Amino acid sequence: MDVKEHLSFFAALYQVDEHAKIGMWLLYFTILGLSVLVYKLGFAKKLPLLKSVVIYLFLAFGCTILTFLGIFLPVAEGLVVAALVLIIYKIRLYQAKKQNSTLDS
Predict the structure, then answer these.
(1) Mean pLDDT, residues 79-90 taken together
(2) Residue 15, CB-side half-sphere exposure with 13 Å CA sphere
(3) How high does pLDDT run on average in the chain?
(4) Is 15 exposed, middle or buried (0-12, 13-18, 19+ CB in 10 A)?
(5) Residue 11: which residues within 8 A CB-CB, separation 6 or more?
(6) Torsion region of 15: left, alpha or beta (phi above 0 gives left; psi -120 to 50 gives alpha)
(7) pLDDT the model gives residue 105
(8) Helix or strand or coil: residue 70?
(9) Cα separations (Å) of 33 from 13, 47, 67, 93?
(10) How far, in Å, CA of 54 to CA of 10, rounded?
């Protein structure tokens, strides 16, 4: 059985099977960055600094687990799709608010 055939897109892109150490770090930072983006776009609220630090520490720990799953499962790819959906939602929300403010004036 060839492992290369079963790797997810980002794991294959970062060549996790050939360069394990650097590939896993790249996959981890990709998943962490996408998770932070999805969190900020969809779920973040204004919190005190210490609570935000705790949230991001738990997010970083969770991304460690997701990185191991992301070798063979499309974790990063799902985060890309979620980020795109949330970006489109935020753009549409901004446009709707802008249009309502011009109609009210």
Answers:
(1) 96
(2) 3
(3) 93
(4) middle
(5) 17, 23, 27, 70, 71, 72
(6) left
(7) 65
(8) coil
(9) 17, 20, 12, 23
(10) 28
| H helix or E strand, kind and range, residue 80 | helix 75-104
pLDDT score at 4: 83
The four Cα atoms 75, 80, 82, 85 give a dihedral, to 10 degrees, of -160
**35 Cβ neighbours under 8 A, 6+ residues apart:** 59, 62, 63, 66, 79
Token pair, residue 105, equals 């004036």
Whole-angstrom distance, CA of residue 13 vs CA of residue 23: 9
Which one-letter DSSP state was computed for residue 4? G
- Per the listing, tokens 């294959």 go with 12
d(CA 27, CA 44): 23
Q: How many residues are listed for the chain in this entry?
A: 105
